[in-house]
């Protein structure tokens, strides 16, 4: 007996549905040599302010420079197709002065959920007094969360993945299961019972490529209910990570939450990369490991008088790519099925929110296959390099990324305040 039209259409629609349900990570934004200086803003220390948060929101002995100043000093430059971000390693300073010159860049776009992959040609060498980091942060802090993807201080040759959350919004914890790293602090809440204020949860990964002169690859997956981080050397990076990433094929992550209301706890966030000096690295209980080497000097005294120690404390960034979990393109069989059924099956792609910054307005846009032009009103002006700067500017935005304006000075939000006094015991027992 020949099959009925109804049964045929049902089978076809079932096939089409099964095909369209397959999702994969697709790139929605990227940072590389064509657009680094267009897509990052610069936090510049204001030494005239009576509020030290205007100098450094995390309380370091540092003087963050504008793009132009940093380039003239050689602490911000392009090396081949990479972005070099480092710290002054020449000047002998006054320990009671304004601090060592460095760079802090912040993305003009904001992101919520997705897969973030950063490829480095060089990672900062762990030295006494240095506190380099690559992280995401929402506003306000900690209500909108913070994810420290790459971070350590002093001579700790171990990467510290740290999350900061607000327990009034939801719970987030790590228990060490399903991760290769070890648990230093289990509760991600900033005011967790039994942990120091503003400490958050921390996972330690000695196997990650942190501190490597050859660099490596770090990936962070942010979903509704989990945060995961992988660290790879270039030699052991998954074959698919550069073009068609699938975390399911990467093995056990170095860090994962065990339970986490991530969708509520982590809001739209900026990417931040900086090299700080002292701050947490100089606090009692943490600086102790370096004090003998420094001849009993304080962190500020050591950093001020030993510039050459920081010659290898720099990031050399090749690229950052942000992916969203979206429907895979239709296969030939699904196209035929759609034609037979005369029914279009709508895709329901998972959404990664991306917001780009300009002085004009604030708009939250869902990235799709069409170009999106959105903006976030800003409060604190920072400086960027124009299209005529040493790094080549992007000629145009791709069809799936956020368009960026190219003014010489583009405002971004005031950096999130994380007072130095609240960080004094942060991960003091992590080593």
Can you describe what's shown?
The protein has 431 residues and is α+β, with helices and mostly antiparallel strands. It has one domain: Jelly Rolls (Sandwich), CATH 2.60.120. 12% of the residues lie in helices and 29% in strands. It has seven helices and 25 strands. The protein has helices at 5-20, 36-39, 67-73, 262-265, 288-291, 299-305, 332-341, and strands at residues 23-31, 40-42, 62-64, 76-79, 82-85, 100-102, 104-107, 110-112, 114-122, 130-138, 146-151, 159-164, 172-173, 182-185, 201-205, 216-222, 227-232, 255-256, 259-260, 269-277, 315-327, 353-355, 365-366, 380-383, 409-412. The strands form six sheets. Strands 1, 4, 5, 9, 16, 17, 18 and 21 form an eight-stranded antiparallel sheet that branches. A hairpin with a 2-residue loop joins strand 4 (76-79) and strand 5 (82-85). The longest helix is centred in the first third of the chain and has 16 residues, at 5-20. The model is unreliable at 12-20, 333-350, 357-412 and 419-431 (pLDDT under 50).
CATH architecture label name = Sandwich
CATH fold annotation: Jelly Rolls
Distance between the termini: 74 Å
Q: Major sheet, described briefly?
A: 8 strands, antiparallel
Q: Please provide the count of β strands.
A: 25
Kindly provide the name of the CATH class: Mainly Beta
How many helical elements? 7
What general outline do the C-alpha atoms trace?
Answer: globular
Mean pLDDT: 81
Percentage of residues in helical conformation: 10-25%
Overall number of domains? 1
Rg (C-alpha, Å): 23 Å
């Amino acid at each position: 007996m020949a099959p009925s039209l109804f049964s045929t259409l049902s089978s076809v629609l079932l096939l089409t549905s099964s095909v369209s349900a397959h999702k994969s990570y697709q790139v929605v934004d990227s940072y590389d040599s064509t657009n680094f200086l267009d897509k990052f803003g610069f936090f510049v220390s204001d030494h005239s302010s009576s509020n030290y948060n205007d100098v450094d929101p995390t309380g370091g002995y540092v003087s963050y420079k504008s793009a132009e100043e940093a380039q003239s000093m050689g602490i911000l430059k392009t090396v081949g197709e990479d972005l070099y971000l480092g710290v002054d390693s020449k000047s002998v300073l006054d320990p009671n002065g304004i601090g060592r010159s460095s760079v802090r860049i912040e993305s003009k776009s904001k992101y919520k959920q997705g897969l973030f992959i950063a490829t480095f040609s060089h990672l900062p060498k762990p030295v006494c007094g240095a506190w380099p980091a690559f992280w995401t942060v929402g506003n306000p802090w900690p209500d909108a969360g913070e994810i420290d993807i790459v971070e350590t201080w002093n001579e700790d040759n171990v990467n510290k993945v740290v999350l900061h959350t607000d327990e009034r919004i939801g719970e987030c914890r790590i228990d060490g299961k399903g991760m290769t790293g070890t648990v230093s602090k289990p509760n991600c809440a900033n005011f967790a019972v039994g942990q120091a204020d503003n400490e958050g949860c921390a996972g330690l990964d000695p196997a990650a490529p942190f501190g490597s002169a050859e660099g490596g690859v770090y990936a962070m997956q942010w979903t509704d209910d989990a945060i995961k981080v992988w660290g790879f050397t270039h030699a052991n990076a998954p074959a698919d990570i550069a073009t068609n990433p699938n975390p399911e094929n990467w093995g056990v992550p170095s860090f994962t939450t065990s339970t986490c209301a991530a969708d509520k706890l982590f809001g739209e966030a900026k990417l931040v990369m900086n090299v700080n000096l002292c701050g947490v690295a100089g606090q009692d209980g943490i600086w102790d490991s370096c004090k003998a080497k420094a001849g009993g000097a304080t962190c500020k005294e050591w950093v001020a008088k030993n510039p050459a120690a920081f010659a290898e404390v720099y990031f050399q960034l090749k690229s950052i790519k942000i992916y969203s979990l979206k429907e895979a393109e239709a296969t030939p069989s699904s196209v035929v099925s759609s034609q037979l059924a005369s029914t279009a099956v709508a895709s329901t792609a998972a959404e990664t929110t991306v917001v780009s910054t300009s002085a004009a307005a604030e708009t939250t846009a869902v990235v799709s296959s069409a170009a999106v032009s959105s903006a976030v009103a800003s409060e604190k002006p920072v400086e960027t390099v124009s299209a005529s700067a040493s790094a080549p500017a992007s000629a145009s935005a791709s069809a799936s990324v956020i368009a960026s304006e190219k003014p010489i000075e583009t405002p971004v939000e005031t950096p999130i305040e994380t007072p130095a006094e609240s960080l004094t015991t942060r991960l003091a027992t992590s080593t």
